[in-house]
Amino acid sequence: xxxxISPTTADLFDESNWLEWRAQAERFxxxxxxxxxxxxxxxxxxxxxxxxxxFDERPRAGxxxxxxxxxxxxxxxxxxxxxxxxxxxxxxxxxxxxxVQALLLGRCAYRPDYQVGWTMFTTGAKAGERFRxxxxxxxxxxxxVAKDAPFKINVGKGTEHVYFKETGAYLNVYTPNGEGFRSGxxxxxxGDEAAEADIEQGEDVERAVIPTMDTKIGAQFILAGxxxxxxxxxxxxxxxxxxxAAVAWHGIPETQNPADLVSWEPAEPHPIRGTTGGRMxxxxxxxxxxxxxxxxxxxxxxxxxRWPLEDFLIEYxxxxxxxxxxxxxxxxxxxxxxRTSSPFPAAFPTRVSVALKVHHLxxx
Length: 364
Description:
- α2 (about 40-50) crosses α4 and α3 (about 70-80) crosses α4.
- By secondary structure, the protein is of the alpha/beta class.
- It has helices at about 15-20, 40-50, 70-80, 95-110, 125-140, 200-210, 235-240, 280-285, 295-305, 310-315, 330-340; strands at about 30-35, 85-90, 115-120, 150-155, 160-165, 170-175, 190, 220-225, 245-250.
- The protein starts with 14 loop residues before the first helix and ends in a 26-residue tail after the last helix.
- It is globular, with a radius of gyration of 22 Å.
- The longest helix is centred in the middle third of the chain and has 19 residues, at about 125-140.
- α6 links the parallel β7 (about 190) and β8 (about 220-225).
- Strands 1-9-2-8-7-3-6-5-4 form a 9-stranded mixed sheet.
- The chain contains 11 helices and 9 strands.
């Protein structure tokens, strides 16, 4: 098997190198992937963010390479398409959050007065912690002498931000509710772990964030995360199904035969459930865009061996649970496998079973 040479950050300024590396992620099966656009400006901004976050100094766990992964280029190009609403729903450990962080930092470095609001829909303390570990730690290592840095960092609780001296841009961290965003004016708002927001929290943030962008040219509302056990009213689920949104969503299709999900390999019993006949390894390698780059497939197997299947599919399979869905009586895969468009037979056998599916608008 031919080993793919991982490009450095410097290599990716060239459009042909960028597209060639991005193509490595295009082989993964996507549930939904909207238009991707790359420009000289978008590459410059993302790669500056990648430099600030020290991508070239951090080895990837999946392949030992350094620099951005192919999936991260895909995320950048989905966002560069310029849609207002954006949903990034990728399996756990695919480094989707880091891709968005790098792009937004790069925009702050190059765009005058650019304003970013970032939160995590877990807790305000968690958002501050991730800010210090994911961003501040790398910035301070890159510029150990604060006065020499092109930015100023504030880690005070409730006022966390990075201020870029040359452009006057800010990346601000807020608690996961609408209060921090209200009365501001944002060019980009980034909500991470968006599926974790409860219904009231999600509605509050939407009401607070969206009006702050009304007067901003090219503003973007970006939601990212993995799934949840419920769908109806879920902030990320709604964004994924917004017909006007830009979406990057990879995962195992819900129509996949459930028998394929019960074991890692067909002849290898699940260590807890004892089931066989599945092909989860194959499905993960087909649909998880981080595997082989940021994530070793063996690490995914560890979770598969230990977790309930529903939890695993939410975290690594790019799926939501069925709570709040209209298809909980018959699994989508079973319905799809049994459905036929053939006409009713002219003569019925002695014994026959018939099921009626009622359309949501009231027609059979």
